[in-house]
Design a protein that fits this description.
2 copies of one chain form a homodimer. Chain A is an alpha/beta fold. In chain A, helix 2 runs parallel beside helix 7 and helix 3 crosses helix 4. Chain A folds into 3 domains: 171 residues, Molybdenum Cofactor Biosythetic Enzyme, Chain A (3-Layer(aba) Sandwich), CATH 3.40.980.10; 78 residues, Alpha-Beta Plaits (2-Layer Sandwich), CATH 3.30.70; 158 residues, Maf protein. Chain A contains 15 helices and 17 strands.
Chain lengths: 421, 421
């Protein structure tokens, strides 16, 4: 089934709003085994909308259109649809009833501009909107079925889930030639995209039913696996086979699948180990603590975080000896190690992590230029370990990769510890 | 000038990624007086990309294409461009040099898949990418000028700002029929979008040359003012007139304009007051510290942040008396006030801020359900002030609005203090 989306509205082509309705719908369709072929965004320009409707209807089996159904002067998507189909707009008695009921519920009656919403193309099917005034409108154009939805995300989603997706699913189920898909996202850290690609390339010929894809979501790289087959069980089996190989190849660089977040995985690994964590941050300034505490239930394992932006607080909160700071400076292996040990001590946790470095744009020394970060892990029964990394890019990027590297030191340590009998 | 955007990538049509590159580019072009006519998103399907390129080039003067320039097997946008133009792909010696230099800087040499990035359509102009390996490629197709950019947002933006927009601006400047625009974004906190809309509505008739727009970027709401005229000076004058009125109407709810970030404004207000700040966070878990330290130079005024997720650390780091915790619990006015005073004391700063609350989904009490947050400000010469807020929504939203409310208590205090003679 060929599906296209058409989104209308000046706000979508002038940078005012990012179109998230499409993302939502694409994901829901993909779950049904349908990959959207094309998404088109046009402004509130009648000939552009009419033309885009005709083009989409000429290519696709289903076109989902959003926006321009409301009461205001720049809402004219249905006029364009009527023109594209060569039919007039007509007031629909049922939609008129719905409008009156909806306004009456608030003690009002619809004003003339609201009544415009009762005008739909002749021969189309209006469907009541549980969340708003403008109805869903279903109509045929050429060989395509068109669904017109309001652009307001809450209304868009309600009509999509309640009406549009069930109808698409029913059509799919009735088709003999349906393609079944199975999908897995493998999430990695610490492996560059081109390396990932090189490692995966030789697997292609062995897995002809798999489409491999790559996505960079710094500091993570994701490998997308999609199996296509003529039955769900074949698609599932093909996916399972390639997933096993990929897991072997990625090893511990693979941290999670599908929607699992890195922070949630780290916290879960700690929880399974019965361990707790504290963090002392200088250049990342609370980023690590914030990432961890964004996960519900993190308070079970995350005990405390010290954002120690001054030398004084490095000593006061996490016990870095003033002479270490004086001899080695705040950005040094010695300070990082003292911070990791000190925060672990102060919070009485199993593990302590620390970060200190030059995030830029100012600061740095000839030996440790901007982008240099010292990351340390204090763990029971082993010497404190510090790693020095050099991150290119701006302040945000340095902080992001420094946070990731530091947490990854802990995750790898936990994995190694749990692997040792 | 007719401009269209074409974004390629399976991740854009399967719901994995929301296309924010387009939003960014649309806004930048709009500043130049150009409204994008159409945005098209297609998956990694060669005939679809080739077809979409041909269609866009047949309609537009300029087509900006993003995605599919990288080293992996699903990167083939330039192959499609070559096919659409009827020319071969050829290895470009200069791009090859850039690749070798880039890899050499990291002590590596490019692998075979990276070398694919040196192959560009015959007759096209490659431009060096300061942020990545894949170059910008400029070429003609029919009457249109095509710009091919990597989809990675950092690289996309760098090449857009450094190369694409200056070239488009130069072309625009050479045209006689140009519309001039002037633009201001007024950034507010603490005023709902519908209230903003109501306040602005009566201004419309007095300012016929102004297009008013609204943008919600939680927890902020932005008012967009755009003046259109046939000369730049007229546009500037119309904008200045409406801006004065808006500033009066918004008062201190207006915190900044255009690209000013809230955190940067708070830090600058502190700096001007010669003041310093420390923060103790419970439910926001480092979010406030992270927002502030993301701003370059924040270390001048931000001294320390304590993420005190346990009762023990609330006492140890910011001196909350154990009996306050025992009597009033960790989520209470008394604890919030003790945290703000304690962190100010520990860090020796002018101001201390604190947050404690139930971010959810777990936790809460009948009196203080999930979404209840206590925010406190300790300042010199006045009693510590605590405000209790109730935020609806999920964990992320509670944390976001709690952080914003807390910082806003400080900003309003600073504004009031600087207004008093």
């Amino acid at each position: 089934m060929r599906v296209e989306l058409l989104c209308t509205g000046d706000e979508l082509v002038t940078g005012l709003i990012t179109d998230t309705n499409s993302t939502y719908l694409e994901a829901r369709l993909f779950d049904l085994g349908v990959k959207v072929e094309r998404v088109v965004l046009v402004g509130d320009v009648r000939p552009d909308i009419t033309q885009a409707l005709k083009e989409a209807a000429s290519r696709a089996d289903v076109v989902v259109v959003s926006g321009g159904l409301g009461p205001t002067a720049d809402d004219f998507t249905l006029e364009c649809a009527a023109e594209a189909a060569g039919v007039p707009l007509e007031e629909d008695a049922q939609v008129l009833d719905w409008l009156h009921l909806r306004y009456a519920a608030r003690g009002l009656s619809p004003n003339p501009s609201a009544l415009r919403m009762a005008r739909v193309p002749r021969g189309s099917e209006p469907v009541r909107n549980p969340e708003g005034s403008a109805p869903l409108v279903v109509m045929k154009l050429g060989g395509a079925q068109l669904f017109f939805l309001p652009g307001v995300p809450r209304e868009f989603k309600a009509l999509l889930e309640g009406e549009v997706l069930p109808r698409i699913r029913a059509t799919l189920d009735a088709r003999p030639e349906r393609t079944y898909r199975a999908f897995r996202l493998l999430r990695t850290v610490g492996i560059p995209e081109s390396e990932l690609d090189m490692a995966v390339a030789p697997m292609g010929p062995r897995h002809p039913r798999i489409v491999f894809g790559f996505r960079t979501h710094a500091p993570e790289n994701h490998l997308k696996l999609m199996a296509e087959a003529s039955s769900q069980s074949e698609a599932d089996a093909a996916l399972a086979a390639v997933e096993v190989e990929c897991r072997q190849m990625l090893g511990t660089k693979l941290f999670g699948v599908d929607s699992e977040s890195y922070a949630a995985v780290v916290l879960e690994t700690l929880r399974r180990a019965g361990a707790t964590l504290a963090v002392a941050e200088s250049c990342t300034g609370g980023l690590i603590a914030q990432q961890l505490t964004a996960v519900p239930g993190s308070s079970e394992v995350f005990i405390g975080g010290a954002v120690v932006y001054s030398e004084k607080m490095k000593s006061a909160w996490v016990g870095v000896p003033p002479d270490v700071l004086a001899r080695h400076t705040a950005v040094s292996r010695e300070t990082a190690e003292a911070m990791a040990e000190g925060v672990r001590d102060a919070c009485g946790t199993t593990y302590g992590l620390s970060v200190t470095g030059y995030a830029g744009p100012g600061g740095g020394t000839p030996e440790d230029p901007v982008g240099t970060v010292y990351c340390a892990l204090s763990a029971p029964g082993v010497p404190t370990r510090c790693e020095r990394i050099s991150v290119t890019g701006d302040r945000d990027r340095v902080r992001l990769f420094a946070a990731s590297h530091t947490l990854e030191m802990l995750r790898q340590h936990l994995l190694a510890a749990s692997a040792t009998p």
